[in-house]
Amino acid sequence: MVFSFIVIPLLVAAIMPLLGKISKKLIPDVLTNAALAFLLLNSILLIKPIFNQGSIIQNISWMGEKVNLQIALDSFNLFMLFTISLVSLAISLFSIDYLEHYGHKANFYALLLVMIAGMNGLVLVPDLFSIYLFLEVAAVASYALVAFGLGYDELEASFKYLMLSAVASAFALLSITIIFGMTSSLNFQDVARGLQDLSARYVIGVCLAFFIMGFGLKAALVPFHAWLPDAHPSAPAPISAMLSGLLIKVSGVYALFRIIYSVIGMTPVMSQVLMALGTISMVVAAFLALGQKDIKRMLAYSSISQVGYIVLGLAIGTPLGIAGGLFHLFNHAVAKGLLFLNSGSIQHITGTRNLEELGGLGKRVPLTAGTNLVGSLSIAGVPPLAGFWSKLVIIMALIQAKQMGYALIAILASILTLWYYLLIQRRAFFGQMNEKWSHIKEAPFWMSAANVILALICILVGIFFTPVFKTWISPAAEALARGVQQVMMWGI
Amino acid sequence: MTAMTLLWPIIFPAAVAILFFLIPTRVRFVREVLAVISSTVLLYLGFALFSLKELSLTTNWLGMGINFDLRLYHFSAFILLALSGFLFLICLYSTVKMKDHPRVREYYGYVFLAAAFSNGAVLSNNFILLIFFWEALLITTYALVTIGLKPTSHRTAVKSLIIGGFCDFSMILGIGLLWASTGTLTMNQVHVEPHGLAVAAFILMMIGAIGKAGAMPFHTWIPDAALDAPVTFMAFMPASFEKLLGIYLLARISLDFFQLKVGSSMAMVLMIIGAATIVLAVFMALIQKDFKKLLSFHAISQVGYMILGIGTAIPIGIAGGIFHMINHAMYKTGLFLSSGSVEHRAGTTELKKLGGLAREMPWTAFGFSVCALAISGVWPLNGFVSKEMVFHGALETGYPIFAIAAWVGAIFTFASFLKAGHSVFFGPRSTEIPKTKESEAPIVLPILILAALCITFGVYNKLPLQNFIQPILSGQAEAQGSLDLTTHALNLFNPVAGVSILCLIIALGIHFYGWNRGGKKAYLASEPIHQLIGLKQLYNLSEARFFDLYEQGVKFLQWLARILFQFIDRPIDFIYEKVITAIGRSLTGLLQKAHNGQYANYLAWTIGGLLVVIWIILQLLR
Amino acid sequence: MIIQIILLVGLVIFAGLAILAKDLLKAALSLAVASLFLGIIFFRLSAPYAGVFEISVVAGLITVLFALTISLTRKNDQVQEARLVKIAFPLFFILFLIIDGLVMKSLLLKVPALPAGPEAGTFGQVLWKQRTFDLIAQIGVILAGVLAVLALFRKKEEDKDE
Amino acid sequence: MSNLWFLYLFFSALLIFIGIYCLLTMRNLIKLFIAIEIISKGVSLALVATGAVQHTILLAQSLVITYIVVEVSLVATALALIINIYKKNKSLDVRLLSKLKG
Prior knowledge:
C: mainly alpha, Four Helix Bundle (Hemerythrin (Met), subunit A), 7 helices, 0% strand, flat, D: mainly alpha, 79% helix, elongated
């Protein structure tokens, strides 16, 4: 049942602080992982009905009363749901061991679950205002999670993140208000129909600009990105993975493109603006990543750069481009989740994240080094890993759309990406072994397990790229590409 | 045999590679046996597939014209056979040479992985598939260079990756352009008249192909790798596999996809690149002091002949280019392997320290000599035949300048190999090296096999030319033109061959002139005296003069070579190392400075960004 | 209408005071007064529940929270604001006033809108039946807020036991 | 769209401007957060005014109430953060929060 994606995490989160009093570790660990595993299973079970029906609209009545709990699920949402469930399960597995030295596991898991509930809700609701609301649910939880360590860096990063995203979501809500004013409705379907009848190009243009700022800040598009390189590295590693892997994509990319495709309708102007923004992010952040000494900060900048790729792909507007963007979204979620978790392993093992202090770890911690290599190469777009295919599809789509300039920049940026990922590899794992690290041990079981699972996904998706792409990504891309028509069909 | 057989050359080595990764490093023997057996199987597979000639496998894959499409025909079968042959020889050689290497486990894994990817690249009949295998080869190259375990290995590996990455990505762009203009991704359906957008596609794809083959200016990592990577890698990748693949693709591009016309601007581009590569790289080879580095510059120089041959767009030239490709792979692999044999026994490859090893290592010396004569184009070895064909082709285009460049290249190729052979195997026995003996059979055998092949392909040149090369060109001949490529293969009595032989004589003259004038006596006599105090300075002086005199005949050329080295080769390195890196760094610094951590600053960007976006959207809507 | 405009102007004035006041407590109180004005505006726009909420929650609860924070952080001296900021504020404010006025004037009657049908039912029905999902999201937000505060104010000593 | 709507939007834009001006120039963390509050007042004013003008006031009203709940939650989190920062820093100056950069 689709509704469980929102209710179960919220319920578990609500009882978690109480259970935390009884058992500090075991029950929160088991319960959280069980809940997330259930969600993953649930999302897999939903695949078949979605393929058969195309989309599911559920209206739920509550205690016999007819209430408006409408959930709309098409291949695009399902794709996002699956990504969220998969990555968050790996992250919570990782947390079992990682959170040992933070303490307060119950509280941590509760916040994590609220954030997941927020993201699931954001993905499922077909309503503009509800999108905003669930965005805030996930955001409030993420502010607290970024600051969870209560260190100086964490607090500073969290404060900046909060202040910037509060402004951004205010603008997004303002834009929703204007659309609400014009169409007198908030439901995707009605709004889409209303906007088709109205001819309000300029107003829609301004609304779009507000959306781009509001959701673009969540997605960390340059120049709205400045909070990310502070917030993501400061958070505990699982949260960095969560933020970089999922939150920026769900509350930024998903929300923006859902509204653009399914409500406003994609136009060439929007496509142009978004492609330019995506490209700027891609290039600027890649250069910034090159200069970093902190692994996590480098990864954070790389997230901005890769979100640039995703936005570039989605903004092309052709089915191939959307498919490439979505595929890259998935690959990046998995690989960046992996890399951030891995950086957590490194920090756990050595106590530092500074690339200049690390070196020659590869011999001592083969699992961590190997999974890091897989993740890095996947994001850098090296075959036969998953990231290569998605970048290739994006570049092909750009060429197909006759956007040679963008294709060229995308190619050059991917060389830059390769460059800084090789930098991590060389400094951290290969090269001269720093004497300090001659007695280190491999990361604990669950941390390594989470890394290995995600690395395997990177490899398997790369090798079985065809079935994955055909059965999984293409339908989602088609659902999105049909856009406004698809949404207007929902009610019928 | 069913079409599924085509999957074997890809899946089998990949599976073997995985097996290699799984075998622990401590287990010895098994690895070597497995390598030899599985490469033998591959060789058999190569022969079996070669006998089939025509086979294709098409599976619907991604839709949108992206199919899993493998196609075996005479050209790809020929390359496939050659690849598996070289793989076999190198495996045989590695059993001894790489036995005690600390990373031997990964070495074999990557070698077989590279073989799998190369086979895939040769067989693929769909551009996307080709890109996949082509790109994947970068990784194996990268990994194999790092296996050198020298301090600078990693740097060189990154260099190869970046340069290779650039070439590959430009190829992707070229393929994209081609796709945009033809609408198909199936390789044997693409035939384009080269004009308009297709010219750009051609140039971009050509960069991809010649970048893989290692032509100028994408060569700079190869000489570095000669010192930093294992010598088996040099024989494996830059000498044989990458040449075969790069030239194969170049031939496909210029014969199938674009149908190059004689004297067209694109053909000229190719010929200029070819000629420049021949001349510039050979000058650099001349002044090298290290055996392997010298060979690596020749590996670059010889690519020039192939590109020049294909660039002529005349059947005999193209055939010469392709024939030169296979010949080059043979003798250059042989040369690298013999340098490895020397390194194996003598422990060094510096020319200064080596000398007179022929007595102790007769088989290696013999193999080296045959290969060196072949690369220099001495009658009746295979190098002579293919170079003659390229000369003829170059002359027939009506631009004799290219033939002259090729001849100049031939002179100095021979001169530098005389120098190398003379100082390594012949001449006085070097005292710096302890007494040694011939390398083990698995090392010598591949060298001798290659030397024998060099002789066979030279003397019985009808065999390869009619069996391998002619079918490839069958579509290229003019309606009436005969396609007998063997007409002037070994003919000594025509003006072109005359000039070539004259070139060889000049080279011989240059060498012996220099050797006789300065060094002969001093070089022979000086070794025992070298140890005496007082005479040391004198010796040093004479040694300095020796080098001075040796190069006196080519003083001008040496100067020229230096200049070229400084101004042609180095700038490319300079651009790679200094300009790109520096620009990147300063841009990074600037951007990093902008992120000063102040909240107001970040908010200002956000608000500014919003205003700019609004403004742009309103402008665009107008 | 006039009253409405007076209220709006009052809202803006108190908002301005809230950021210009030197004393933080006064600033927080000005914010509360601004909320009060906003609540009355809501009320007059026939949104009585929203007005009540605005006055009780924002003017009441949030002001209390602000006051609490201010008293907790009062020990050391205040942060010195740049003097130019306050002098420049009226300048920028008037500038923006003009721009805002011009933009709004140019937009007058330019924004198309669909006519909405008359709303059926009562406020309660709309809130509970039409916007049920928002209630769930509210639960989520409240939960997130509570958990956030719990996480941020957890005792440090407890960490060491774990 | 009636003229009245633009009057309200005019004032709500003023409120948002005041908030952003404060965010850009002021240094006290609490002041900055007051500015966020002012921005959200502007947004809720726009929301209710839209409802009133479009005769969808019941809907707008429920939205605003939800929005106020979000606001409370945000305020609680932010003030908790500010208090924690104050404990670490002994100051409320935003300029000190620039350790993370580059």
